[in-house]
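Q: I'm writing up a methods section and want to include an example of the input and output format. Could you take the sequence below and give the corresponding predicted structure tokens, formatted cleanly so I can copy it straight into the document?
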Amino acid sequence: MISEHREYSEHPQQSEHHGHSDAPDGETAPLALKILVAGGFGVGKTTLVGAVSEIKPLRTEELLSEVGQSVDDTGGVDQKVTTTVAMDFGRITIRSGLSLYLFGTPGQDRFWFLWDELAQGALGAVVLADTRRLDDCFPAVDYFEHRHIPFVVAVNCFTGARRYTDEEVSRALDLDPGTPVVLCDARDRASGKEVLIRLVEYAGRMHTARLLDSVG
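A: Here is the clean output for your methods example:
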């Protein structure tokens, strides 16, 4: 049974500069958008960034130490021997003229001080979820909701894990109406790319609606 518990935390609002392009007047410049990949410890963030990236991904993984294991919750991921201590970075071209820069966040609470820096200028975020440890993604959901950063929840379908519908996951996480929930395999490039496309489409609609509200 998926639990339905949430905890909230307050953080300052982030700026809303989302992409960068430079081109002479009359020309369409390539657009690069910043995307965060977040979620709990061991949920598959490094795997997703590595699977979809068209460049060799930058990784900041270190071996789990005995000290780290005493403060990090490794329940359900007992076989995990490394952890991201700063960020993962990759890049994927969605279509001609549109690239995404992917920043994978560290999953442990002790590295949360990095999140505000990583979130600056992000178009949106992917919150990876594991239905065996769904509570682990609540902090990421709360973080992006409080900052009004559009996000999608991507359920990483681990082998042997019980399958839930997107509606069941949405209810369990108490998501705002319309927040997309998608099922994925973080190891599969096509699956990961589909998650990112869904996010870009959703974030685009959200930012357009906010712009219209501001001038309406």
